[in-house]
Amino acid sequence: MWLLPDGRLDAWVSHTAARIGAFLLNLLGVSADAAGRVISVAGASGVKIINGCNGLTTIGTFAAFVLAYPGSAHRRAAFIPVGVAAIYGVNITRITILAASQTYSPEVFSWLHGMPTGAPFHLTVFGLWVLWAHYGRTGQSGGARTLSLKTQSA
Questions:
Q1: Neighbour-count burial of 18, counting CB atoms closer than 10 A to its CB (0-12 exposed, 13-18 middle, 19+ buried)
Q2: How far is CA 13 from CA 30, 59, 62, 154, in A?
Q3: pLDDT band for position 95 (50/70/90)?
Q4: 40 strand-pairing partners
Q5: CB 132 within 8 A of CB 65
Q6: Which of 18, 56, 114, 135 shows a CA-CA span of 20 to 30 A to 100?
Q7: pTM for this structure?
């Protein structure tokens, strides 16, 4: 709720994702255009990128996890932008696939919107969290510790 509750950040992320998605579709030979949150594809209905599908909530959750989990400030400053870019890139790929489905096979849109495009997105986020759990701890004094007892011989 604290991420610009007036919706400007959500709108910017959605509009940018729509523009990049339309650009990618045009590179792939699918005639597409972006207007606001909507990717229109020639001869088919397009897709509208709503707040829940623009990836911003997931990006915020990812960043919060990295900030909450042990690690140096330097590693966090390097890892968060890389993770955000990866999550955003995978989500744009997902959006592009969904928009392309409107041209080639609109009847599979609902199915694609679920597991086939959602699973890689969420697996990417999970993989980044696992990577951070290992990368962030490098050089930290966390994890299992051994207690050394010195005994004196008589």
A1: buried
A2: 22, 11, 16, 72
A3: very high
A4: 33
A5: yes
A6: 56
A7: 0.80
Q: Look at strands 44-48 and 32-35 and give their pairing.
A: unpaired
pLDDT category of residue 139 using cuts at 50, 70 and 90: low
Could you give the maximum distance between any two Cα atoms of the chain, in Å? 91
As a residue count, the chain comes to: 154
Amino acid at 151: T
**SS3 for 32?**
strand
Show the CA angle centred on residue 60, arms to residues 59 and 65, nearest 5°: 100
pLDDT of residue 92: 95
Which of the residue ranges 39-43, 56-60, 89-93, 146-150 has the most confident prediction, judged by mean pLDDT? 89-93
Q: Radius of gyration over alpha carbons of the chain, in Å?
A: 21
